[in-house]
Specification:
383 residues; alpha/beta; eight-stranded parallel sheet; three-stranded antiparallel sheet
Amino acid sequence: MFELTATDESTKARRGRLKTAHGSIETPAFMPVGTQGSVKAVSPRELHELKAEIILGNTYHLFVRPGLDTIKHFGGLHSFMNWDGPILTDSGGYQIFSLAKLRKITEEGVAFQNHLDGTPTFISPEIAMEIQAVLGSDIAMVLDECPPWPCEYDYAARSLEMTLRWAERCKRISKTGSQMVFGIVQGGTFEELRRSGAQALAAMDFDGYAIGGVSVGEPEREMMQAVEWSEPHLPKDKPRYAMGLGTPPQLLELIARGVDMFDCVLPTRLARNGTAFTAAGTLNLKNAEFAMQKGPIEEGCSCPACVDFTRGYIRHLVKAEEILGLRLLTLHNLHFYLDLMKRARGAIEEGTFARLRAQFVAEYKTRGESLEQNTGGAPERFI
């Protein structure tokens, strides 16, 4: 299902191909987030035109709305949303973190008061796998607890132990058709826990492995350490997925640390705030300086926004709260992320990844506005 086609000599960067029932995924890969069966502001046809190969859906949100009966009636999530490419579904573990005030964790599973109307909603490891079987995703994630940051060692250790027991329960569920199942490494910001968690999951022999519990508010260095502590203990012949992050430089840094797959809501969320990604950093197109500019968001970009429209026009749309403006920025930002992965793949094949990484990170950090200026310093994952 997964083959490595090239590796970088100076880093741990890997070029690979993951085969699924709905097509192959070239890695390193970025997965646009379609939490509720839709990548915000773009259609499946547009995603194909942007060369997106896989998208992400969310078990908890789709279970709450529209519900399994509806999705089953339409023949699964692919048919329901008219997307014929691969889909990865998160298990709902992130909602254990993000909806902490609305849930209670027990050994059996998680009891939520769902965020829409407070209706009791229970998800166990077995139920999470059953939901994902109905959704028909190509890659299903085990149910895990995503602990908060910061947390004490004892809490992180207890959480990891339960997550591993939940992973074993998920593993015992018979797979549906060709659906793959990925384990999730937790352990907070503690090296010993990350190592032992990765080793225990590797022994369970999942189809792939995610590194979870990152991008939950911790400093970037601690995020990188969580990956560095986990990655050496994961099988080299299985895909590695860093969940819910990050900025463009972070993606390149994590590719250099041996990660193959990413998802993040930043491209779509920042677009809805009027912000565009460029190689020089982010641009807040609400700013007056762009009002008279006739050039594209980024010179040389082949996305629909840059090919057909000027910065000044897109700024006008954003300021006037016209939906087209947000759509154009979303298309641009997704193209930027997807193209960055394409460039990384090519550089690994050509043996120039180290140069790409160094140049991109240096230019992105030294020019343009900071991410915090555009988001208010909010965490990177907003599912």
